[in-house]
Amino acid sequence: MTGGWAATPERGSGAALRLMARIALGLGWPVAQALLHPITAFYLATSPAAQKRAARRYLTRALGREARWGDLWRLYFCFASTLLDRVYLLTGRSAGYRVDITGLETLHAAAERGQGLVLLGAHMGSFEALRAVGGAGAPVEVRMLMHTANAGPADALFDSLDPTRRAAVIELGRPEAMLAAREVIERGGVVGLLADRAPRGERMVPVDFLGDPAPFPSGPMTLAAVLRAPVVLGFGLWVGPRRYALHFEEFSPALVLPRETREEALRGWIARYAARLAEMCRAHPHNWFNFYDFWREEER
Q: Where mainly located (predicted)?
């Protein structure tokens, strides 16, 4: 798959997604949850062979054994479950959801000091669950720095469900993006970055990930250094129907890239992030939603 993550098309038409959202909101969570099983079976059966090969290779690394069909099913089902939960979380229907949080004291301490944070995440679990922390005792502004060029029907649907969602995004690539992010930090807010993928064309740095070299984007670490704020890792893990485990941990009091050793320092920060992400993937293998050739094995 030479196109990479950003060139991987989002599956599912806008009409089908809107229909599922109406079913979920109209008939309730039990009916929608039951429908996830045939939906997962359909998408797994019809998924392109290259996507299934990529997912199987990832799972084999994370599980430490050859991935089986059931492992693929769990990965696809976990992904579908987080999409369904977004429909409810974005419309404020959180009754019945259980969210267990660890590391919240890190956010509390920063909020009490009026200090902004950079939150590094990944395409793991649900960021909508991470946003729920605002209602769990840490009422701070949370904005995401992200590329929107790969947005598809799902993003359009979620934006329609929660009109404030788009306002919480700072679009990378715009001249005013860094100014907006710095203002959030100065107000004591949180700026989030997904540090495991980037659009094609961004500079990548190969580091060890789950036992083999894999390219990670340099941009997120560079941006975190420019923002000059403490850096925290955050993951919103799906652990079962309507159950999430939110995990926050300190990554660095400040991410520094000295001019004299910039390349070495940058690689070191990326490697440290990749090592922690690998640990999370091994502990929660079906939460990292990878459906493309992350290690670029098919390009060799």
A: membrane
Predicted local distance difference test score (pLDDT) of residue 152: 66
pLDDT digits (tens, 9 = 90+) for 170-191: 988 888 999 999 999 999 999 9
In the chain, what are the domain boundaries? 5-299
Task: Give the model's confidence band at 263: pLDDT under 50 very low, under 70 low, under 90 confident, else very high.
Answer: very high
Lowest mean pLDDT among 10-14, 202-206, 221-225: 10-14
- pLDDT of 150 reads 61
Contact 205, 91 (CB under 8 A): no
pTM higher than 0.70: yes
In 10 A of CB 293, how many CB atoms? Answer: 22
In Å, what is the CA distance from 212 to each residue of 56, 75, 215, 255? 15, 21, 10, 25
**Residue partners of 254: CB distance under 8 A and separation at least 6:** 228, 229, 230, 231
What does the pLDDT look like over 59-69, one tens digit per residue? 999 999 999 99
